[in-house]
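Recall from the previous lesson that a structure prediction takes nothing but the amino acid sequence as input. Here we apply that procedure to signal peptidase I from freshwater metagenome. The sequence below is the only information supplied.
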Amino acid sequence: MVGLRVGVRIARRFLSRYGTVAVSGASMAPTLNDGDWVVVKWKPRRKKLEVGNIVVIEKDDQPGIQYIKRITKIEKKRFWVEGDNTEPSIDSRSWGFLTRKEIIGKYLFRYWKSKKF
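The prediction returns the following tokens.
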């Protein structure tokens, strides 16, 4: 019974810190494609965010809508993000710099590759 309780605690801790996100659209192609599934770390520490990291964003003025983009610039604790495939990407070129609060997750790895591409 003790082993089960420990297992449940570990699972809760993991699920509160990590999650999965489905990639939708072509803005991160060829790195990530429409239909790919990725694992992210929720609420990454600001110190752990660097130029080149792929992050999940939820803009303050668009609650419930998430984007996955790459950090391309950091200035004064604000983040500039862009899609790898810039033509179809809606990103900081439209929004401007993002606050740390708007970065809700950090990409860790892709665990399911879409068969579309």
